[in-house]
Amino acid sequence: MNTTATIEVQSTSTTPTVFVDGASGTTGLGIAERLTHLGDVAVKSIAADKRKDPGAKRALMEEVDLVILCLPDDAAKETVALIDGMGAKAPKVLDASTAFRVAPDWAYGFPELAPDQTGKIRNAPKVSNPGCYPTGAIALLRPLVDAGFMPADYPVTVNAVSGYSGGGKSMIESFESGAAPSFELYGLGLEHKHVPEVQKYSSLTRRPIFVPSVGNYRQGMLVSVPLHLDTLPGKPSSGDLHAALAKRYAGSRYVSVLPLDNDASKGGRIEPEALNETNKLELYVFPGDKHGQAVLVARLDNLGKGASGAAVQNMRLMLGLPEIG
To answer: Do residues 17 and 65 touch, judged by C-beta distance below 8 A?
Structure first.
């Protein structure tokens, strides 16, 4: 019995092939949708009755260049163990779960993290796709730590709000059925699974406080970091922080640093849905120099740059394909 089916039929011998394992979840569906618009990648899938057959899965993975895992953590670990046993036939793997995000032998899939991160992703056999909240937080914090404006042991607080699509099947059903509240804080046990990721890749030695929340809208995210500027080394101005961010992301295709004098700053407000259906990430510095304060804000689509969009960006790097969009 044939266990696989090719979605892209116009592939050639030089067209890279990809298998999305777990394409029925929110992230997997988003990746699959994005891949249908690409003409330079062939996507293979496994027959429904063979999805949990290790032999059939291994046979398929031997045929592809890259596997994208959109599975729960334990299932991702099982599949990676299977890949590790494939030797020279093992494909590259991009994991969208939280299972390997702080693993030392995996490249972290935020290409804009540091000047050499794109090269690390391109050459890595294993890449962990970032979480949505960490993408915004790390984008704001890492350049400030690298520039010396923020000590590694600074007591950072990260506040964030996401659309309900980031909460998985049960949260989506709760909101779409009308059973959920309009807004709620969660993760108040201060053990959110994204905290180790934020701490490690922001180069922080002190564990940050992270307070996530969810609103009654489908997708879109704001991540904010409030700061007392006079507690930072050298008492930098908001302009100094903005310059550090602008320098880090100069020339980036997907990450932009908005001018200090922007429409959101003038109005003193910002909404989370403006970047939906994109792989873009916008960074803002809202100045309050009169009071020695500033608020840093990242805006992104939690299903785009926070999930599926980032996965496709990383996939293209791993396969040696050019950036798009």
So the answer is: yes
**Is residue 174 within a helix (H) or strand (E), and if so which, with residue range?**
helix 168-176
Q: How far apart, in whole angstroms, are the C-alpha atoms of residue 195 and residue 257?
A: 24
Whether residue 222 contacts residue 140, with contact meaning beta carbons closer than 8 Å, is answered with: no
* Spatial distance between the Cα atoms of 324 and 22, rounded to a whole number of angstroms: 24
Reported as a single tens digit per residue, the pLDDT across 149-161 is 999 999 999 999 9
CA–CA separation, 133 and 198 (whole Å): 8
Q: How far is CA 173 from CA 25, 72, 166, 179, 208, in A?
A: 13, 18, 12, 8, 31
Which residues are catalytic, by number?
Answer: 132
The whole-number average pLDDT for the span 158-171 is: 90
Q: Helix, strand, or coil here: 286?
A: strand
HSE of 236, CA atoms in CB hemisphere, 13 A:
19
Phi, psi of 129, rounded to the nearest 5 degrees = -75, 135
Calpha distance 141→195 (Å, rounded): 13
Neighbours of 280 (CB within 10 A): 20
Instruction: Report the alpha-carbon angle 33-39-41, nearest 5.
Output: 75
CB 136 within 8 A of CB 298: yes
* pLDDT tens digit sequence for 111-140: 999 999 999 999 999 999 999 999 999 999
